[in-house]
Write a structure and sequence with these properties.
Length: about 475
C-alpha cells in the first residue's frame, strides 16, 4: 500500500487520485522547495498499476505550505458539536492541524458525506441520544467503575511511604470485555437509520469484531468481519465468540492492516446496502471524529467520577495506543484542561532498535494511509512497514489523526513499553489486584514503572484498563508462570 510521504527526503510518493476508476499515483522528487513528478501511474483500488501516465513528467508542482500547528489546541470536536455552519456546508474535512482529511476516490465521497450528515444529525437528535444512553447503561453496562487500585498504589510508594494514587478506568467490564462496545452499538444504530442491511468491519484483537457482531445481532443487521490469519491464530477465542454471535468471519492473509484494506474494499463494492463500521479513530473523515465522539463517554465519566471521589480532576491520564481510540476516548474530555497530563503508550515490541515494534508516534513520519493524513510507519519510498507487538490490538502502522495532532502540538506525551514490560505489568496486576488486563492495556500499566517515581506524592493517575485479558490467555500462559 502506497502512502504519501511528507518527509524532507528526496523522493516522495503520493496517491493523488481519483484517476479513471482508481488513483493517480505519482513519485515526486523535491528540489528547492518545489516538487517534480518523476513517474506517474494509474492504479486501481487495490493499488495495482493499471498504466503509465505520460505528460506529467515536466509538471512542476509547488508544494503547499504545511498548515502550521497552532499552539492552542482546538480540536475539531468543537466544530462538529457546536458550529452549525461548519457541520452543514460540507467544508469541514475533519482536519486536526495538518492531520486527517478525506483522501479517498471520488466514488466514496457521496457516501462519506451522507455518513457525516447523519452523524451530525444524531448528535443533536434527542431520541437517538436517549436510545444510546439506555443501550450504554442496560446493554453495555456503563458506567464503568473508576477503581482505586490500593495494592498497586502501595507497590509504587517510595521509602517515605508516599507516591501517586492509581485508579483504573474499568473498560474491561463492558459487555464484550472491552471499550469497543461504546462505539459499535452507536454506529449500528446509525447503520439502521441509514437503512443499511449489512455491516462490514475489520478486527485485529477481535474485540471490535465481538462488539460489532453483538451490536448487529441486537439490531438485526447481517454482519461480516474481516480478520487477518495471523490474528485469528493469536486471538482464536474471540474468533469463536464472533461466530457464536452470528457474524460471518472472513480470513484475510496477513494482519489487521490487511483485514482493514479488505473490509474497505468489500464495502466499496456494496455502498448502497452496506455500512462500514469503523472500530477506531482512523480512516477518512468522519470516521475518526465519529469513533472519538462515541468513545468520549470514557473521559466524561472519568471527570464526573473524579469529582465524586476526590473533588478534583485526574492529574495524569494514561492509555495504550494502537490506533488511538481508547486513548482519545479518555483524553478528549480533558484536552483543554492544560493541568491534566495526557500520556499514550505504544508497543515497543522487541525494542525500538529491533525494527519489530508498533511505535508509530515514536518512530513514524507523516503520510497518508487508509484515507487520512497521520503519523505512519513507512520506509523512504512511502511503503508501509509491518507493525509488531505482542498485543495484537496495538499492531497498526498508522494512528488516528487527532492523536497525531496532540503529539505534534505537544499537548500529549507518548512513550513506549516492550512486550516483556507489558507481560510483567500484566502479571503484576493479576497478582496485586486480581484483575487480568488485556495485553494492550498492560502496555499502559507497564509505563507506571517509569512514571510513578517522577510524580509528586498524591498525584491522581487514571489508567485506561481498555479490555480484559481472557483473549490473551494462550500467550499469557506461555509467557507467565
Ligand atoms: C482491549 C484493547 N485495548 C486497546 C486496543 C488498541 O486500540 P486503540 O489504540 O484504538 O484503542 C485494542 C485494539 O484492538 C483492544 O482490543
Amino acid at each position: 500500500m502506497t502512502a504519501c510521504n511528507m518527509r524532507s527526503t528526496e523522493f516522495l510518493s503520493a496517491q493523488i487520485g481519483p484517476y479513471s476508476s482508481g488513483y493517480l499515483s505519482v513519485k515526486i522528487r523535491s528540489r528547492n522547495g518545489n516538487a517534480e513528478v518523476v513517474r506517474a501511474v494509474a492504479v486501481d483500488h487495490s493499488s495495482t498499476v493499471v498504466k503509465e501516465v505520460s505528460g506529467l513528467s515536466n509538471l512542476i508542482l509547488r508544494r503547499p505550505p504545511l498548515t502550521p500547528i497552532p499552539r492552542v489546541v482546538e480540536t475539531e470536536k468543537r466544530k462538529v458539536s457546536t458550529d452549525d455552519d461548519d457541520d452543514d456546508d460540507g467544508n469541514d474535512q475533519g482536519r486536526f492541524g495538518m492531520f486527517g482529511g478525506k483522501y479517498v476516490p471520488e466514488t466514496l465521497m457521496a457516501c462519506l458525506s451522507q455518513l457525516e450528515s447523519e452523524f451530525n444529525s444524531v448528535l443533536k437528535d434527542t431520541e437517538f441520544q436517549a436510545e444510546l444512553a439506555t443501550a450504554l447503561r442496560d446493554y453495555v453496562g456503563r458506567e464503568t467503575p473508576l477503581y482505586f487500585a490500593q495494592r498497586l498504589t502501595n507497590r509504587y510508594k517510595n521509602s517515605n511511604g508516599e507516591g501517586p494514587h492509581i485508579y483504573l478506568k474499568r473498560e474491561d467490564l463492558n459487555h464484550g470485555g472491552a471499550y469497543k462496545m461504546n462505539n459499535a452499538i452507536a454506529q449500528a444504530m446509525i447503520a439502521k437509520r441509514l437503512g443499511r442491511k449489512t455491516v462490514v468491519a475489520a478486527t485485529g484483537a477481535g474485540q471490535h469484531g465481538i462488539a460489532t457482531a453483538a451490536a448487529c445481532a441486537k439490531h438485526s443487521l447481517e454482519c461480516t468481519i474481516f480478520m487477518g490469519t495471523k490474528d485469528m491464530e493469536k486471538q482464536s477465542s474471540n474468533l469463536h465468540l464472533m461466530k457464536l454471535l452470528g457474524a460471518n468471519v472472513k480470513s484475510v492473509d496477513g494482519s489487521f492492516k490487511d483485514a482493514s484494506s479488505e473490509a474497505i474494499r468489500n464495502w466499496v463494492g456494496n455502498l448502497e446496502t452496506s455500512y462500514y463500521l469503523s472500530g477506531t479513530v482512523v480512516g477518512p473523515h468522519p470516521c475518526p471524529s465519529m469513533v472519538r465522539e462515541f468513545q468520549s463517554v470514557i473521559g466524561k465519566e472519568t471527570r464526573r467520577q473524579a469529582m465524586e471521589k476526590w473533588v478534583g480532576k485526574p492529574d495524569v491520564l494514561l492509555a495504550c495506543v494502537g490506533s488511538g481510540s481508547n486513548a482519545l476516548g479518555l483524553f478528549h474530555e480533558f484536552v483543554k484542561d492544560k493541568d491534566v497530563r495526557l500520556i499514550g503508550v505504544e508497543g515497543a515490541g522487541f525494542g525500538l532498535g529491533s525494527g519489530r515494534h508498533s511505535a508509530t508516534l515514536a518512530r513514524g513520519d507523516v503520510g497518508v494511509y487508509h484515507g487520512a493524513m497521520s503519523y505512519l510507519l513507512q520506509d523512504e519510498e512511502g511503503q508501509i512497514l509491518e507493525p509488531y507487538s505482542i498485543a495484537v490490538g496495538l499492531q497498526y502502522p498508522g494512528v488516528g489523526p487527532e492523536l497525531s495532532f496532540l503529539k505534534a502540538s505537544g499537548r500529549a506525551e507518548f512513550y513506549t513499553a516492550t512486550d516483556q514490560e507489558a507481560l510483567d505489568a500484566c502479571q503484576l496486576l493479576c497478582r496485586l489486584e486480581g484483575i487480568i488486563p488485556s495485553l494492550e492495556a498492560s502496555h499502559a500499566l507497564a509505563f507506571l514503572n517509569k512514571l510513578c517515581p517522577t510524580l509528586p506524592a498524591g498525584t491522581k493517575v487514571v489508567v485506561s484498563c481498555s479490555g480484559r485479558g481472557d483473549k490473551d490467555v494462550a500467550t499469557l500462559s506461555n509467557s507467565i508462570h
